[in-house]
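Technical note accompanying the year-one report. For the benefit of new consortium partners, we illustrate the data format agreed upon in the data management plan: each record pairs a sequence with a structure-token string. No post-processing was applied to the example shown here.
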Amino acid sequence: MKDIFGLTVEELQEALQPFSLPKYRARQIAEWMYQRGATGFADMTNLSKKLREELSGAFVIGRPKCKDRLDSSDGHTTKFLLEFTDGTAVETVLMRQPYGNSICVSTQAGCNMGCAFCASTLHGMARNLTTGEILSQAIVISDMLRAEGQGESVDTVVIMGSGEPLMNYENVLGFVRLLHEDYVLGLSYRSITLSTSGIVPQMYKLAEEGIPISLSVSLHAPEQELRSTLMPINRKYPLVDVVRAARHYAEVTKRRVTYEYILIDRVNDGEEQARELVSLLRGQLASVNLIPINPVAERHLLRPSAARIDWFEHYLTAHHINVTVRREMGTDIQAACGQLRNKHLDG
């Protein structure tokens, strides 16, 4: 049977053609799936019983099951391990921010980018996620928030969970477009952020899509050799090309690019790196998000002292680089990408 979760209204209309239904039925079904928590056609009470039975024999509504859930002690962060029908599991995080509810979704099961500081890559990549599987992470959390009865919803989405989004380009783009539809979550494109390790051709392609989502670039080092050590993909797409593509994205979309910079003690947090970072980014429509590393035991990389973090931040600020230090959320529940999934794989 065909899984229809993740289809647009237009795609649903095409799938429903054998049933000779009016077009508006596709929108009703979409709203049930994406806004009202339907897991099967039996839930769809504005369809006739006969039609529900017929559709149940032809289609399934693929929804993951929650394999594990961890809640931070402060109640602000919840991490879910969601399992799809083939047993593949991915992590999704809900962060209750002062400005609203933000969720972080995964686009691949695992990751093969090989970044030295990341847990997601320890087991390699199992496979790409489909558009529906990426979307289902957002819908599961949206359903949960609605069930809590406090009138809360998903306000922002960051595509920076496990995987490299631009290596699963078409499915990720389909997910972004669906999030924007009024029969799904109706999110503004400006409420969506995509993070990439720097897949240069797709960065240029994304700039031409006409969807002004925010772009974050995982930089983590300001010069070629060190970045290649931390991020092997840098050997294929060199630092200078990544920054040029990011500058192009900002120029085309008029959206400020964020450079993510994980601070690692005595690796990339010294004066030399700070000076090189200023030189690299001066004059760009960009900001830097400093992220003190969330240590991964297998990686043996340490978090800098508070004094070193403060010094690095103040150096950038003094040299007119827009900078923030990421507010930590969920450290007590291993909210860094890949840690919960790895616990289950290793178990």
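Partners are asked to follow this layout when depositing records. The longest strand covers residues 89-97.
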